[in-house]
Fold Leucine-rich repeat, immunoglobulin-like and transmembrane domains 3b.
Amino acid sequence: MYRLLLVQMLHCCFLVAHSCPTLCTCVYQGGSNGTGLRSVLCSEPRMSAIPLNAPADTVKLRLEKTSISRVPRAAFFYLSELQFLWLTYNSITTIHPTLELLGFALRELRLDGNLLSAFPWEGLRDMPRLRTLGLHNNRLSSLPAHAALFLPNVTYLDLSSNRLTTLPSELLDLWFPPPAQLAGPTQRRVLGVHDNMWQCDCQISMLLAQSKYQESPVVLMDQLLTCGRSGGTANQLGASLIEADLSQCQRPSVQPSATQVTSPLGSNVMLRCDATGYPTPVLTWTKAAGASIYNTVIQESPRVGIRWSIINLNGLSYKDAGEYRCQARNMAGTAEAPIRLRVVGVIAVPPSIKNKTRKAPSRSSSNNRKPLPQKPKRAQNITSISTPKKKTLLNLKYVTPPTPTNKTQSIKMAPVPTPLKKIDKAYHPLFCVRSVPVLKITRTYSYKDMFLLGAQL
């Protein structure tokens, strides 16, 4: 019983893998007798739904000129080897956003000649090998800014014959990257934007002008672009973009909040710059040798022509010090402004500032101070001992004594006759007495005499 069930399951899988859907043609390209790449072509106008029994080894699937109006979620989930999907010239109006069910092998997706007014760009997230995307002859009226996030690997993009009026600046930055972001050789892209109702402004004009350079990364399928109703003046209506008067172009101008910033170690700092220009410029931050800064960056455009950006640096270290550059770029040109950040450790205060910060004691505070306790004075027999107000100089005569002949003639220090010496009506304690017996000279010296004598010497 189990063997019979297993055989039936294998037979069904064999039919799915090798059977061809009704109203379709299955062929092998590049080989015969079951070798080569399987291709399935369905072009029956009566077909109103995508067939679910296409062979699992299908590499190329073409559904053309049918009555199919929508693409459901589970339309191609079992086609793991599908590389080329053509859904051209049908009546498709909606596509389910989960296009990742197509698998990682898809390289070419063509949806030309349908009735699409919107496209699920987020569905391209899981298609890293996609290189060709055709949206010619649909009803697309606008392109979202986030579409550039899912088109980095697409080298052929056909947006012609739609109802587009403007291109987001994010797409222009993707197609014309600044030199600082070019890591290798420039990847050239083929772009179709003709037969749209373009607003003839600086943005589309610069796209046309830069595509004419020999080394341009973008090649236009058709350079004949015309101005639509949303153009600036009535004279531009239906005129060629080359003949239109495009006077709205404005190169960006950058104004930083500060050119030099000094912040202590471990603190948080914000660097800001503002830019103006038309089209609205895009701001990028770089440091030192041109390394881009991708984290902790806030950017906002309050209105057309103005954009500001802030970079937050938390917990500063010495490696954060250096020169930061804020660069503004639009289709009319580029501009940048430097901001130098200095990180300091212990801030040294100059002595002049220290002296100014010291407060001199006020009289009120000195008056309020309590007097210090004084030591009791020693009781003396002399009623008062005063110090002369003026400096008194002693006229001492120095006499060189003769060489002594015996021990009795040597200089002797006689005992102090009295404990005090009177100088200018004041008594001073004696220090020593000098006696020379040969010359019969005896002199007394007080503490003040010795002090004044030392001052003269």
